[in-house]
Please model this.
Amino acid sequence: MKECQREQGGLQKSRKTRTLRARSVILPCFLVSVQALAQSPLPMGGTPSVAAPIPAAPGDLSKPVFDTRTRVFDPSAGKKAPDTVVAEVEGRQITLGDVQDLILALPPQVSQQNFQILYPRVLEQLIYRTALAIRARQDALDNDPALRRRAEAAADHIFANGWLHKYLTGKITEQMVLARYDRDVGSKPPPEEVHLRIYLAETEQQAKETIAAIRGGADFALLAQRSSKDPSATKGGDQGFLPWSAVTPELAGVAYGLADGEVAPVPVRTRFGWIVFRLEERRPGARPPFAQVRESVMAELEQEQTRSAAEDAMKNMVIRRFAFSGVEESGPNAPATRTDKEGAR
Model:
């Protein structure tokens, strides 16, 4: 059962990770990998290099959550303009802004190191990247159709995210996040939790014999301690209280119909073996606090705003789709992409 729970937890973490990745704002494209910087240990200490976008603290209900302000690298760097030239390669200038962009793209544990330590390493990477880009053009790689297509896609990605970042700034406030939490979480009954006790058998026959023994008066916990194959056998098969989301679908489908204290009438087959279980008790679960789900609620609002931004961007644009055969599918501004204004015509 615990292995089942771990799988469920892994799935939830995977979903969370996908949600967090979806919220990243700018993903620059590099010709030279910066993994070496991330893998090379850098000493801590000194003034942090760059701060991430500053979120509003919970409770500050009027402040926009999506804030684009960042701190400068350090006092000395902050006095210089981003277009300050810090290197040249074959006459092509590398600026302080280029350094800042690359530092912002580094993993947080690296980008927040002392600027005086980061600066020479980042500048070296920029020089490498610029030199390689110049050599690529000298070899006419800028005429390669595949590379040109990928370069244009990278530029489109950066500009699209830049416009989206500008569009979202100030659109979402802490009050909106709190209101969504109240609507989707705070105003609903807390999720139910269920207390299960299980016995894991290797064969169906053994599981059926166990059910018969329990119905005949045998102690469930004692049977589990003696011969259950589940790691919870030492606790008599006791799983404690779990949210329904942590119960495997095979067990949940049967457990929903049981009364408190009732043993499942038939064993349930899982990839771990045959499970005999008893539903000990149900109880209302704890409602997740605002701080725990704030990020996921904010991600949901940002996705909604992103859809709105895309619709706004497509206003008055002619959008056409073509099948693989080259035939236009539905004519300009098909319903899937038509804006409200176009749809009203």
About this structure: Residues 115-138 form the longest helix (24 residues). The mean pLDDT is 78.
